[in-house]
Design brief:
There is one protein chain. The chain is an alpha+beta fold. It has helices at 8-31, 48-58, 64-70, 84-96, 150-164, 171-205; strands at residues 40-45, 75-81, 100-107, 120-128, 139-149. A five-stranded mixed sheet has the order 1-2-5-4-3. α5 (150-164) packs antiparallel against α6. The chain starts with 7 loop residues before the first helix and ends with a helix. 25% of the residues are buried.
């Protein structure tokens, strides 16, 4: 049986429900003639094999309870935004939402990882009309949301492809070049944000 036990269908339903809410938010912003919240959205339920491997790697028991409580990313959503300010808008909306509670935040944009990785991670506690692993109904399920700009997302995808899919002959040099590239992209994000703000201020002045 899957490590998710009888909860696998519920996880897929929860993923679909959260995705629908995020799309509704985006549509509402556009209907109000405001900038879109995000450029695109990617969601997934971590495969049972990947979750089993993670539990073992973390030293957790390979159980449904560990997969759904100690690990908090069985359901994951990535929002790829155009600007850093859009990430901030998304975070603010999630913090104010009545259908979830933000239980953890990790700001890797302000405080990038040593390798240059930048992203904003949230863990949501989402109420759902299903029994959870603790026997509660409505149940509580965790959803991880990662928010990145297009530049951050491109860098993360390429870094993963370079370092984890191929043998790297000179890992130290590759790491330094990747870090330099990440810093340059971060600078570009800040510049683009500044340009957007100048354009918006110009529209206001008119």
């Amino acid at each position: 049986m899957s490590i998710y036990g009888p909860y696998e269908d519920a996880l897929n339903q929860i993923l679909a429900g959260v995705e629908d809410r995020l799309r509704e938010w985006n549509d509402h912003q556009l209907a109000m003639h405001r900038p879109k919240l995000y450029e695109h959205l990617i969601g997934r339920v971590k495969t049972p094999a990947s979750m089993t491997e993670k539990c073992r790697r973390k030293g957790y028991p390979v159980t449904t309870a560990a997969a759904l409580r100690q690990c908090r990313d069985a359901v994951g959503i990535r929002l790829v935004c155009n600007f850093i300010s859009d990430i901030n808008r998304c975070v603010a909306l999630l913090e104010q939402a009545d259908w979830c509670t933000v239980v953890q935040k990790k700001d890797y944009i302000t405080n990038a990882k040593p390798n240059g990785y930048r992203s904003y991670h949230l863990i949501l506690d989402v109420a759902a009309p299903y029994q959870d692993v603790d026997g509660r109904r409505p149940g509580r399920f965790y959803v991880e949301v990662q928010l990145r700009t297009i530049a951050m997302d491109s860098w993360a995808s390429l870094e993963h492809e370079i370092k984890y899919k191929h043998h790297v002959a000179d890992p130290e040099r590759i790491s330094k070049e990747l870090k330099r590239c990440a810093d340059q992209l971060a600078s570009c994000d800040v510049q683009m944000q500044t340009i957007r703000q100048l354009v918006q201020e110009g529209e206001t002045d008119e």
